[in-house]
């Protein structure tokens, strides 16, 4: 995949299906022309999620040339699979290609963090540069751009840093994935344990920025764990930069706290930690660029 001015001319119906919400948009290049935010009803299942996307596509019929959908979990040969059902469960492997064929004949589907990594490489914080992207949100996903190419892996699992083991010496052999101990669900559960009151991650960060010690402690612990992950990524891949996005990752003060912890963990190591430029639209911009590039290569007629 290469960056082309032609990508700026192709309108794409793009969707980002996450653990709590689905963003559907018409995208041209890096510009979101219009968008719709839908809840991802966790108990509904992928058939209903795709049906909601189809309904929006009908409303926007004739306004897009191709389709790009990016999802939480694993995409292997256009089949969608859960990796950590606690983040979002799709049940049995889901043939997402069959659903997308109802919307348009030209489509691409990819993991959400991989798409966001490509978006940041094409239009965002790391334009033209190799990078690792981490989305810290309901769960924790990642994407890798190396030698100007997006790494997907043999089974579509490249960059799933949230699934690495947090503690290999634990009694369960480190079976609990990292993302269960640092992201939005963990933050909310810790807030309940600390206060006895239900808090969203956003509420925890608001309380932290107001100086509440209990909230500052939760935020700092989450940032410390992400900092340790960044340290490990640096030693394994040594990317020129790590870009942080996602609802938690973009919260005020979170990246600064990651940097503070990193300086304590490995002084003078100079890991370049950047905040996502594309923010919440990184995934849809990235998948739109991939879909547009595929559309150019296929050279088919407009829908």
Structure description:
By secondary structure, the protein is an alpha/beta fold. The protein folds into 2 domains: 132 residues, Nucleotidyltransferase, domain 5, CATH 3.30.420; 152 residues, ATPase, nucleotide binding domain (Nucleotidyltransferase, domain 5). The protein is 36% helix and 22% strand. The protein has 9 helices and 13 strands. A 5-stranded mixed beta sheet has the order 3-2-1-4-8, sandwiched between helices. Helix 3 crosses helix 9, helix 4 runs antiparallel to helix 6 and helix 6 crosses helix 8. The chain is globular and about 55 Å long. The model has no long low-confidence stretch (mean pLDDT 91).
Distance between the amino and carboxyl termini: 22 Å
**Per CATH, what is the topology of the largest domain?**
Nucleotidyltransferase, domain 5
Order the strands across the largest sheet as they lie in space: 3-2-1-4-8
How large is the radius of gyration? 19 Å
Integer average pLDDT: 91
CATH H-level name of the largest domain... which superfamily? Answer: ATPase, nucleotide binding domain
What's the oligomerization state?
A: single chain
Share of helical residues: 25-40%
Using the coordinates above, name the CATH class of the largest domain: Alpha Beta
- Secondary-structure class: alpha/beta
What is the domain total for the residues? 2
Succession of helices and strands: EEEHEEEEHEHEEEHHHEHHEH
Give the helix tally.
9
